[in-house]
Design a protein that fits this description.
Shape: globular
Helix content: 25-40%
Radius of gyration: 19 Å
Distance between the termini: 47 Å
Number of helices: 8
Strand content: 25-35%
CATH topology of the largest domain: Rossmann fold
Number of domains: 2
CATH architecture of the largest domain: 3-Layer(aba) Sandwich
Strand order of the largest sheet: 2-1-3-6-7
Order of helices and strands: EHEHEEEHEHEHHEEEEEHEEEEEH
Length: 255
């Protein structure tokens, strides 16, 4: 099995490779691609792999741009935490999806699905209803607290105390109402799937904010929104263009 990994988070890519080797010792990982542009270049210079594992949000855009530029003919297993991309995933050669952090048993099921499809004439297909259900867990399954370390101490922080999350130099931080910041062992993709979407919203690649963290909002260029957070953020917090419409809908969603 010749596999290509499209993933811009190195720890996630290394974990995926490790699990794949445990499941399929003879697997050949051809390369790890970190961006849309480098993936398009790679496909122009190499033969099509047997199977692709692809994240959706890459360093320079969404991986769907790759499929618009390259005629991908092999099956794809997406790694995603975003329900808004489910329909787009269905339109390409998706056979399954994996939610981060990847679980070995789910990865093994996905690989087994590939094996079954490779021995039949069935067209690859993804179960959208199952995808949406997995990306929208029931209220009781949302993250309720985090375990953090500071110095030699360990403590728990209830989700009600958290105002926003952000990444800096590939490290994820949690910020509390008091303005205290703690390193947590999560990436924003896995957080986005674990947090209650009525309370938290991912405004861009660097920040997930809570509804009660918003102090002020201003109209910004290209239909974007500039947000002032409380406590103040270390970086300028601007809702990305592609998320602005969903953000405004989220603001008014009182259901």
């Amino acid at each position: 099995m010749r596999t290509l990994i499209i993933e811009d988070e190195d720890p996630a890519a290394k974990r995926l490779q490790k699990l794949l080797k445990e499941i399929e010792p003879g697997i050949q990982v051809l390369d790890q691609i970190v961006s849309v542009s480098s993936a398009i270049k790679w496909f122009g210079e190499n033969e099509m792999p047997d199977l692709i594992f692809s994240d959706i949000q890459l360093s320079d855009g969404l991986s769907f741009e790759i499929f618009k530029s390259v005629g991908i003919t092999c099956p794809v297993i997406f790694t995603t935490a975003y329900d808004q991309y489910a329909i787009e995933a269905f339109k390409v050669n998706s056979i399954d999806y994996l939610l981060k952090p990847i679980k070995k048993e789910e990865l093994e099921q996905a690989v087994n699905k590939y094996r079954q499809l490779s021995t039949t004439a069935s067209a690859p297909a993804i179960d959208i209803n199952k995808l949406l259900q997995s990306l929208h867990p029931t209220g009781g399954e949302y993250k309720k607290r985090f375990v953090v370390r500071y110095g030699e101490h360990i403590k728990t922080i209830d989700i009600e105390e958290v105002v926003y999350f952000y990444t800096e130099d590939k490290v994820t931080f949690l910020c509390t109402k008091e303005g205290r910041r703690y390193v947590i062992d999560y990436n924003l993709d896995s957080l986005d799937a674990a947090l209650d979407p009525k309370t938290f919203f991912r405004i861009n690649r660097q920040y997930i904010i809570g509804i009660h963290s918003i102090s002020e909002m201003f109209a910004y260029t290209k239909s974007r929104v500039l947000i002032k957070l409380n406590p103040p953020a270390k970086h300028e917090t601007i809702v990305s263009t592609e998320r602005s419409a969903d953000f405004k809908q989220w603001l008014g969603d009182d259901k």
